[in-house]
Amino acid sequence: MGWEQARSRAYAVGLAAALPTVDVLLADADGHTLAEPLAPRTDLPAFTTSSVDGWAVRGPGPWRIVGRVLAGTTPAPLTEDGTTVEIATGAMVPPGASAVLRVEESTRTPEGFVDGVPRPAPEWRLPGEEAAAGEELLPVGTPVDPSVIGLAASCGHDTLRVRAQPRAALLVFGDELLTAGPPADGRIRDALGPAVPGWLRRYGCQVRTTDVVGPVADTLPAHEAALRSALVEVDLVCTTGGTMRGPVDHLHPALAALGADYVVNTVAVRPGFPMLLARVIGPDGRSRFVAGLPGNPQSAVIALVSLVAPLLAGLAGRPMPVLPHAMLAEPIPGRGNHTHLALVRLDRVAGTAHPVRHVGSAMLRGLSGADGFAVIAPGSSGAAGDRVPVVPLPLLPGERTW
C-alpha cells in the first residue's frame, strides 16, 4: 500500500472507532481532546473592568474621593459629578463613572481632591470585548494544553467534555534481546521497549509500566497469549519485530488466530516497509488495534509516525495531522517506487531541513538529533531548494508543533 493511502486508512479506522466522551476536571484535562466546542458561560469580561490602576471619575474634575474599589468587589454607583473612587486594575468600574484616570497621570490638590486629564480612549474593558456568552472559541477536536485549560477556566468552566485517552500496551518480541547491560554473545540490547512508551505518551496515549511486556518468547503460543492478554485491557497494542514471515516471525499467524483483519499490511516506504496495522473486534463489539512495528529501531519509529500517529488522532477525535513543509538544504535521494522518509534536522528560523547522518534503519544516533522525516515522493528525488512535507517527531502533550 502507498504511504499516503496507508496513513489515510489508519486515520479513518481510528475515527470510526473514536473513544467515548467523558467529563474531566480542568486539572486532569491536559493531553485530552475537546469533545464539544469551548464557549464562555458569560460574556468575557462579564462586567466592565478597569484596565489600569487609577481613579474612576464622574464628570469634570477636580474630583472628591468617596471610596475605593478593589478587584473582587461590587462597587456602589457614582451618583454625583465631581466624585471619584480609587480603582485597581481588574476591578469592576462603578456605574455612573465617565472615565478612569491613570494613577501616574493624576495629582492630589492641597484640599485633598484628585485632578488630571483622562485619556480620550476609555481605560476599561467592556463586557463581551473578548468573547460573547456562548460564542464558540475552540472547535471539537482541539487538543487540550495548558493554554486551553486557562481559557476554559476564564470562561467559567470547572470540567471539560473530552474524548477518553487511548490506552496502549507494548509487546517486545525477540529471544535475541537483552533488557540490561551491553550487547554481547550474539545478543543485542532492546532499545524499543524503553523508548516506544515515551513516543506513545507524546501522542496522547496512556501507557502504564505494567503495559510493557517482553521480551516475549519466539513461539506462536507465547505471541498469541501475549496479544490476547493485552487486548483485554487496552485500545492499541504495539509490537516490535516479527512483522515479516521468517522462521521465528509469529505475528501474522497470531493475528490470524485472533480473527484480526488487516487495515494495512506492509507499506511502500523506506525504511520500515514491513509495518502493519490490524483490527480486532472485542467481545463488547468495540474495535481494538494491533500495530506491528518492525524490529529495527528507526523503522519502528517510522511505523509510529506513519500508522500509529494518524490512528491515535482518529481515536481521539482530532483532525488528521497536517504535515508542515520545509525547504531542503541538501539533496535527498529517492527510493524508487517507495516513499522515502529521510531523517532531517530543522532550522526553524530559515525554514530549512538538513539531512542527518547515521540513518540506517537499525541506527538510533541520527534519530536522536533529528526533528522529523522529510517525505520524498515515490519516483522522485529531493533537490536542494525543494519544498517537501515533513513528518514531525511527536512532542510532549501540549507542546506546539514547529
TrEMBL record:
Presence of the UniProt keyword Transferase in the record: yes
Cofactors demanded by this protein: Mg(2+)
GO cellular component, one term: cytosol
Enzyme class: transferase
Keyword Chaperone: no
Transmembrane residue ranges: none
Any Gene Ontology biological process: Mo-molybdopterin cofactor biosynthetic process
Function: Catalyzes the insertion of molybdate into adenylated molybdopterin with the concomitant release of AMP.
Similarity-based family: Belongs to the MoeA family.
Protein name: Molybdopterin molybdenumtransferase
Gene source species: Micromonospora maris
Lineage of origin: Bacteria, Bacillati, Actinomycetota, Actinomycetes, Micromonosporales
